[in-house]
Structure prediction request, 264 residues.
Amino acid sequence: MDWGMKNRMAQLIQPDGRCFFLPIDHGYFQGPTSCLERPGETIGPLLPYCDALFVTRGVLRAAVDPAKAKPIILRVSGGTSIIGNDLAHEALTTSIEEILRLNAAAVGVSIFVGSDYEHESLINLADLVNQCEDFGIPVMAVTAVGKELEKRDARYLGLCCRIAAELGARVVKTYWCKDFEKVVAGCPVPVVMAGGPKCDTELEVLEFVHDGLQRGAIGINLGRNVWQNPHPVAMIRALRGVIHENLAAKEAYDLFRSLRRGKK
Ligand code: 5RP
Prediction:
């Protein structure tokens, strides 16, 4: 691995081997997602507690202060919407020149394994890897399920993660699921977990994150369960405790409750 690639990977994965990415890219197909209508305001108090921000170029330019930013993972696939025919019908949206101009630490692209657009999305990943490897930019593959959330089991996600790694992704983002160690075991590159739609309780989120880490994930790329929480700073700090301070889920929940009482 060349110096540039190593340096970018080190910006993302911290010295303890763990990472906490904060995604705010949801608008690229959902529009003004709840609590992300004004992304600059949403992320202001949260930025100190994450390791990197997952964002499109549009929101990056409009809402993220370049003097105060965290390492940027640029979302570079899109071209669909929640009211369109098929969320899987994505293309690459961002040129390599733009990726370099924006000084991205990494880029993210969705793959839709098993969908009608499986082939196109996998070729998007392969094409992006071909372009980015020349410049030492890591590609994070996002194993997307579109609207079919029930697809999230170890067999399916394990298949998606392995294919992403085989095509050259340096990091794979997938969903937590039961028997998560099976997903990790079949994937030769680091795996991070997304959060998915907002869970009913904070403890539920802290428990699945803790479980996934015990089973081999290196961290999270988790958005809605942070910034849609009524106490987002308390929630991000509790999650950070699980990721970087080895807190158990219950300990992190106690931290959440004490921070919430202090209205942080
Ligand atoms: C949306 C994404 C998100 O980055 C990913 O789903 C993580 O966010 P959340 O925790 O809200 O699911 O890829 O396009």
Observations:
- DSSP finds twelve helices and ten strands in the chain.
- The radius of gyration is 17 Å.
- The mean pLDDT is 96.
